[in-house]
Amino acid sequence: MAFYHWILAFHVMSFISWMAMLFYQPRLYVYHSENAENKGFIEVVQIQEYKLFKYIGTPAMWATIISGAFMLYLNPSIFQSGGWMHAKLLFVLFLVTYHFSLEVHRKRLIENPGYRPGKFYRFYNEVPTLLMMGIVIFVVVKPF
Question: Which class for 17: exposed (0-12), middle (13-18), buried (19 or more C-beta within 10 A)?
Answer without folding.
Answer: middle
